[in-house]
Amino acid sequence: MGKRVGVEVSIALADAVKLADADVIAAYPITPQTHIVEHLAELVAEGELDAEYIPVESEHSALSACLGSAAAGARTFTATAGQGLELMHEVLYVASGMRLPIIMAVANRALSSPLSVWGDHSDAMAVRDTGWIQIFTENGQEVVDQIICAFRIAEDPNVLLPVMVHLDGFNLSHVIEPIEMPTEEEVCDFLPVRRNPLTLHPSKPVAMGDFAPPVVYTEAKWAQEQAMMAVKPTILDIWDDFAKKFGREYKPVECYKCDGAKNLLFTMGSFSETAMTAVDKLRDAGVDIGLIRLRLWRPFPFEEFRAAVKNAETLLVLDRCISSGGPGGPVASELKAALYNEEKKPKVVSFVGGLGGRDITVAGFEKIILDGLELAAKGQEREYEIVGVRE
Amino acid sequence: MAKSEFELTWQDIEIGAAVTEPGSAAAYKTGDWKSQRPTYDFSRCLKCGICYVFCPEGCVRQNQKGHFEANPYYCKGCGICAYECPTRVIVMREEEEK
Ligand code: SF4
Ligand code: SF4
């Protein structure tokens, strides 16, 4: 049994990377990810974690160093946020195209300009098509658990894809929470030693990330896409096994008080915790509302999502990102797309809020829900509603 | 590679599109791209190797008589060798010309 400790989530995350026995960490410090890599640097410096810590001069180099280390077969970790993730952008595609199981924690942050170091999902949404598995977490315990699961998912021979674990900047990264830290033995037992089907090795030379002329590029991309779409059963198995060993269950789509609810609110990340309290209060007041939280964003769990909303009439979606000039928040647009060809589908109302660290309180969520139900009944005037903006 | 690149299906692609066969780039004849090729009048050749040094494709080799000559399958027809040759041995000609 693990030990329950009160600890800052960033520190717990770094400790989880230590439990996973990472071999190489290359990272550039950026708010609000800093505490994660600072603590990892300390663990390495003090000899508590036998790993190579590569201090680089930018995030582009951080991920490039991770490419090399993962290609050589080392268990590799990095972390970033906001602008840093954007600076990694081109290398993100290289990592997924080369099928390298790199683990990255993203302490979600808004993108400049104006400069903001506070949390929203603009960084995560900007990289949603880069071929990485993306998992959103809700609280500190999930962060620790999902980091450990992420290593096993990424390195599974049926997966071999990089994984991003998203945690909201500050709202999650900097809070102190009671967290049950698994023991080294438990993690060792859960996370097998990495076996690499294809690594750089002088006795069996391979070339990675090669040139593909038009005649084979489509085939290469389709092979990668097939791999991505096939990973869900493996992720479900790994989460099941995690539940057996650690007693905490994770699902791609999680429903809260959805039974019989005709109206559903949809959230991702740490706001889900606040939204739950709002749903509790409104339920007590007799409002018909349930909550769906999405944990697995890529690959998108179409089946589970469609099943979760199949009896709903209204779906209120909160995005922490603006899809500029687009048809609504990026998540709302994708949910609409996922439902478009369904015979029976709920009406989707898109909300954008919580940008650049703006809080949405329980009362704020109650207002979103009540406004959303009203808009669904009388019809929306615009593509999306912005939450709490001063007019 | 048993199959040609035109026959490869997505299932044939290695994990991460890795190339597991060393030296396989030789099968990709990059000289197909060229629109001009170097032609030679070796009577003026000094065998100095300047064309060999300057060729950015590394496709120039010394033949049995000691003259330097480009491999047409990999020469991209950039004309650098012709420009650098001190005795004007090399003349670039359109691909279709004799
Ligand atoms: S034309 Fe250019 S590529 Fe061809 S042999 Fe001369 S220098 Fe090399
Ligand atoms: S540069 Fe001219 S002279 Fe010198 S080896 Fe080449 S062809 Fe002959």
Automatic annotation (TrEMBL), chain A:
PANTHER family hit by this protein: PYRUVATE-FLAVODOXIN OXIDOREDUCTASE-RELATED
One Pfam short name: PFOR_II
InterPro entries: PFOR_II (IPR033412), Pyruvate:ferred/Flavod_OxRd (IPR050722), Pyrv_Fd/Flavodoxin_OxRdtase_N (IPR002880), THDP-binding (IPR029061), Transketo_C/PFOR_II (IPR009014)
Enzyme Commission number(s) of this protein: 1.2.7.1
Spans through the membrane: none
Protein name: Pyruvate ferredoxin oxidoreductase alpha subunit
SUPFAM superfamilies: Thiamin diphosphate-binding fold (THDP-binding), TK C-terminal domain-like
Domain Pyruvate:ferredoxin oxidoreductase core: 261-362
Enzyme class: oxidoreductase
From TrEMBL, chain B:
EC number: 1.2.7.1
Protein origin, superkingdom: Bacteria
Broad enzyme group: oxidoreductase
Keywords in alphabetical order: 4Fe-4S, Iron, Iron-sulfur, Metal-binding, Oxidoreductase, Pyruvate, Repeat
Residue span, 4Fe-4S ferredoxin-type domain: 36-65, 66-95
Sample GO molecular function, one term: metal ion binding
Protein name as it appears in the record: Pyruvate ferredoxin oxidoreductase delta subunit
Organism: Dehalogenimonas formicexedens
Name of the gene encoding the protein in the UniProt record: porD
